[in-house]
Amino acid sequence: MTPQTIQAVVFYALAAILVFSCFIVVFSHSIVHSCFALFFTLLAVAGFYALLGADFLAVTQVVVYVGGILVLLLFGILLTSRTPLILGLASRRTYLFATMAGAVVFAILVVVIHGAWSGASVEPGSQPTIESLGELLLGRYLFPFEFSSLTLLAALIGAAYLVRRSDR
Amino acid sequence: MGLLTWSDGAIGRQVANLSYVENDIMLQIGLTHYLIVGAFLFAMGVIACVARRNAIGILIGIELILNAANLNLVAFSLYVKNLDGQVFAVFVIILAACEAAVALAIIINLFHGYGTIEVDYAAQMKE
After folding, report:
1. Considering chain A, what is the average pLDDT of its residues?
2. pLDDT of A159 over the 50 cut
């Protein structure tokens, strides 16, 4: 087994997990099932980052998405449902049209990607990226970085203000 | 006769070359493979956004679309051998966290106001 073959095997395994869990996310009747399937989709994306050698992003994906956003979504589901299972599907016709539109979008994107970058090779980085990413974040991208922390603070204060109990 | 064998050999070599290339596309994971996975995630996100009636389902679709963008950013950052794309991916993750927090606050408000988070009913009740 050459490293290339191993890479291909890992890639196709991750892609299979992603496709399968993605179908559950989009087409499941129960929003809770869809949320749990999203867990595997996000983990597969983190696996793709690791396969590409983006170690920092893989860890960030697991910490922020799986540990943060997914738990937030589950809290949202539990807080907004009287019964734990909400039927979130629209009518069958809407779903049919949406699926057709999605398939058309996917087909167009595949044709464009295949035409524009077919044969372009991408070598996974072999060096840890954390050091250079940190230098970029605190060097060239210092202002966007600080501004994003401000945005995060504003968003959290805004969210807390929105859900406050109104004391009448 | 000599010519025939020569062309025979050339054709054989060409065929061998072709099958090698065919093999290569499946095994050599290139940029297009990652981009197609990203395109799939994006298409599924669009379907979820359009077809779900539940507000949280729509939020999940948006998360899928942001993940697709992130995957493309990381793949391209390795393609051009430049880390800027990964920095952008970090910013996208930060903004996704902000967006999820605010959207869930709005959804909970919607639930307190209308007693449902089905977006169609909420749109009807507004009138």
Report:
1. 87
2. yes
CA dist list (Å): A138 to A133, A141, A152: 9, 6, 17
Select the residue of B29, B32, B94 nearest A113 (Cβ to Cβ).
Answer: B32
ipTM of the complex in this document: 0.89
Do A27 and A103 sit in the same domain of this protein? no
Residue of B nearest to A157 (CA): B102
B98 contacts A152? CB cut-off 8 A: yes
Question: Considering CB atoms only, which of B32, B46, B61 is closest to A118?
Answer: B32
Looking at the structure, do residues A145 and A106 belong to the same domain, yes or no? no
Domain residue limits at A99: 93-117
DSSP conformational letter for A67? I
Same-domain status, A68 and A146: no
On whether both A79 and A9 belong to a single domain, the answer is yes
Report the domain count for chain A: 3
Which two structure tokens, joined as six digits, stand for B115? 């007693």
Query: Do A164 and A109 belong together in one domain?
Result: no
Q: Give the E-state strand segments of B1-127 in sequence order.
A: none
Q: Say yes or no: domain B32-125 is CATH 1.10.287.3510.
A: yes
CA distance A56 to A3: 22
With 70 as the cut, is the pLDDT of residue A86 above it?
no
**pLDDT at res. A117:** 80
Assess whether pLDDT exceeds 50 at residue B6.
no
